[in-house]
Amino acid sequence: MDQVATTQRSPGPRHSILDLAPLELECMSALWPLGEGTVRDIHRRLAASRPRAYTTIMTIMDRLAHKGVVTRRRVGRAYRYQPNLSVNEARMSAIEKIVVGFFDGSSEALLAHLAANHVRREPSLPPQLPSRAPVDTTDTSDEQSVTRQLNKPLL
Known about the structure:
- This protein is an alpha+beta fold.
- Helices cover about 45% and strands about 15% of the residues.
- It has helices at about 20-35, 40-45, 55-65, 85-100, 105-120, and strands at about 70-75, 80-85, 135-140, 145-150.
């Protein structure tokens, strides 16, 4: 007789911020500066950069509440949402997950990686292709000469 163990979930966030879908993270990014807000508040903030349907934002916020990322309380006919973690806590959690998952727990390895990639990504001029001389191909059957620049676009 196997017994199934049930675990009690803590009231805090049960998902890492890295587990959020892109639109969930966008909604959180709109909610953090507000501290607390309704779907309408979040929808207005997102509309400036990326318009979405009101019902889409409502669905996303409902999912975030079920995941434990936000808490909600009913005020009149609407829900007011409040993040369960600050933006700084979310950043720290995300960075910690990256350090553990990709850099064997070494923040120094992450810093070295960022420094090395920053140097490579500094603005630079695109590499120049060597110029090519025109190629002369003669079709002896038609006795016509065709000259074509290889470095000119074909379209």
